[in-house]
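step: validate -> pass
step: tokenize input -> pass
step: predict -> running
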Amino acid sequence: MASKIQIFRDGKAYGPYSLEDVRKHMGSGRLKGSDRARYEGEPIWIQLSQLPGVQDDRSVTPEAITGPVAYASHWARFAALLVDLVVNGILILLFLIIGWIVEIHILQISSRSVHGYYWSLIILLSLWLVVLTEAILTSSSWAGTVGKRVLKLRVTDYQGGRLKFWRSIGRSYLKWSLFWIVLLFSPIFELLTRKPSKKQGLHDKMVETLVQK
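step: predict -> pass
step: emit ->
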């Protein structure tokens, strides 16, 4: 028995509907080919007209339901992370240099305690600069960081759309706050359970995002 279909419209999910009902509603005009849809259990929403079985009488197999979505491998994500580490390192270094110039030539700090507080603030701000920069890039038309751009990867929500800024900044914050857990959790979990996965990092699972090729 074929899986039922859910429809996503105006920010809400409707259904599930049988394949026959969906075809009838399309014929009557109640549903449009441009509406977002998915088979139950699948994370990605695609155009209804592209959903296997909707426009023709092909049998709906599990392979057909999955569709053309290709998730980024852990190795591809790791390579993108290495690029991002280099880019972020350069960004932090430039920010620290600016902080040093401000301290020496503008603030002229002489107190040791004030010096310590000042550099604690500068380091904290540099880390937040990384989080903010990544959030801006990921929620932009790039749909990812510089590393993901180089590796031709993109970050999407479960509907396959671009992330809103606040979800993007939450993802970036979790990614760098839980850096080692994010780096190791998904591949080890997948290896131990031997379950097929969507190659999500822990931060992706927490904010419901995907990284696609």
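step: describe -> Residues 57-67 have pLDDT under 50 and may be disordered.
step: cleanup -> pass
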